[in-house]
Amino acid sequence: MEYFQNFNYHTHTYRCGHAGMYKTEEYVLTARDAGLKALGISDHCPVPALEFQDIKLRMHLKDAEEYISEINGLKEKYKDIEILSGFECEYDNMKAFFLSELRDKVDYLVLGQHFISDVKREGNSDYPTVYAHEVCAAMESGLFDMVAHPDIFMNYSDTFTHIEDQTKFMENARIASQMICEKAKELNIPLEINLHGTLENKGYPNKLFWEICEKVGTPVIYGVDAHDPKEFLSMRENMDKSEEKIGYANLNVLEYYNPVDFRNSNQVLQNKLRDTIKSAYTYEAMLANKTITNILNGLPEDLDKETLEYRINELLESEKRKLENSYAIKSRESTDESAFIARDNRLSYEEKLFYTSRIRAGLINLSETLRLRLSFINSLAEYVQKAIKAGAYSKAEIANIVMRQAEVNSTGDIESKIQQLEILNDFYKQKLEEGGAQKAGKLVKSNPLFGKLESDASPFLWSSDGFTNVMAVSMIIMFILGIGVGVAMMLLGM
Ligand SMILES: [Zn+2]
Ligand SMILES: [Zn+2]
To answer: What is the DSSP letter of 191?
Structure first.
């Protein structure tokens, strides 16, 4: 092959815990030596503070600032190679707002859908289409600039014991490939031929997928997915090997691509992102809604208020025990891991030090997450109590109020706080007028898990710069919250 792609936007660092211990600067220097003119660093993104971190997969949220500032330092230091900062993230609609906040801090986001929450990958003949739906939803969110290894679902094509299940998988794989290629073409989002998959002889790049991509005419780029700087030196060779493997004579390969330029000229994607931010709730609010909804769905319809509140509390307590158990399992795994590292003779002392420090930091993070999560559940119990006291009785009303309280508690955006408080206050006021006996059914925005209660009458603009001006508005927030709580207490006669 004549063509050599002189840019790469898929690169990892030591922070993800499975990429060796190289300095980020080594990636820059080796990429430059290999003839690259642009290098994007896109390590696996952190998860929200309320979620346990897997130290073998990703950095912790509190390491994100340092990661970005290191890349910014390299941008300043090296002017003969363009350096961009990014994250590779899985999409999850519960995390849309969280991902938009991460996105604000870097130049671009790569979609790397390695898994889908609560979906089985092995031995699941429906996995390809479930995967494709999630990837299409991710592209529709406007959060992502490119899709890494869009054919990674093919990794699971050999996980069947019955031939008919495998046949079904392959039928679904064809449908899934078509869906992904068409959506990416429609939104002008490039799909990546993953050279790390070629290097490690994984199930991707996959011939069937790229044949379909060729017919659809979707824009395509290569991604090194470097977990070691040396992968830049074998980039040309891996491009050739990929060609042998999938034979992509007529793919629509982009010979120039820069995610920032591409985004700036893609109005459709910009609008989609704005809509996503406008309608997204914080992760805490989504988690509150999910937790309470799961609990309520398991309870009978005809409980009286006192029993309902008692049963919810009981189930919230058992949520806490589950979390403590999962914390105990994770921390035991860490201790086992460190014992294993201590006696592994293949590891150098430098490596042993690296891994044990990582395990140590991971354990501290784990216990902090547990603490946050337990206090989160305590606040859910408090919100439920308030909601029931205020007259909410139907499951949908309780879940709605709990979610709004969680949104007020967790968002940094003052307008969102005000809006949620107005909705809550209207609800309380109406309950008061009704003598607190009847259903209110007058919540303005839809509850994402319970379906629409009533359409959003006045579309509301969230400010996109959630991370800025936080200090400046914090005093106002305290003031508004004061009024909100005051009004609520007055209405409830507390
Ligand atoms: Zn990785
Ligand atoms: Zn990757």
So the answer is: E
E strand intervals along 257-318: none
Same domain, 296 and 434: yes
The number of the ligand nearest the C-alpha atom of 194 reads 2
pLDDT of residue 483: 56
Q: What percent of the chain has pLDDT over 90?
A: 79
The enclosing H or E element of 95 equals none
Query: What would the DSSP string read from start to end of 339-369?
Result: HHHHT-TTS-HHHHHHHHHHHHHHHHHHHHH
**What is the distance in A from the centroid of ligand 1 to the CA of 169?**
26
CA of 195 to the centre of ligand 2 (A): 10
Centre of ligand 1 from the C-alpha of residue 202, in Å? 13
Question: Which domain covers residue 192, as residue numbers?
Answer: 7-278
Q: Distance, CA 109 to ligand 2 centroid (Å)?
A: 12
Establish if 1 belongs to a structural domain.
no
Quick: pLDDT tens for 318-374.
999 999 999 999 999 998 999 999 899 999 999 999 999 999 999 999 999 999 999
Using the mean position of ligand 2's atoms as its centre, give its distance from the Cα of residue 88 in Å. 6
Listed residues 231, 247, 278: the one ending a domain:
278
pLDDT of residue 482: 56
Quick one: which ligand is closest to 42's CA? 2
- Give the pTM: 0.87
Name the 3-class secondary structure at 400.
helix
> What spacing in Å lies between the alpha carbon of 152 and ligand 2's midpoint?
11
Has residue 143 been placed in a domain?
yes
Q: What is the pLDDT of residue 450?
A: 47
> Domain containing 111 — which CATH number?
3.20.20.140
Omega before residue 219 within 30° of 0, cis: no
DSSP code per residue over 214-244: HHHT-EEEEE--BSSGGGGTTHHHHHHHHHH
What does the DSSP assignment read for 301-328? TT--HHHHHHHHHHHHHHHHHHHHHHHH
Point out the residues of the chain with pLDDT beneath 70. 1, 435-494
Distance of CA 122 to CAs 64, 126, 156, 206, Å? 32, 10, 6, 18
Place of tokens 């930091």: 361
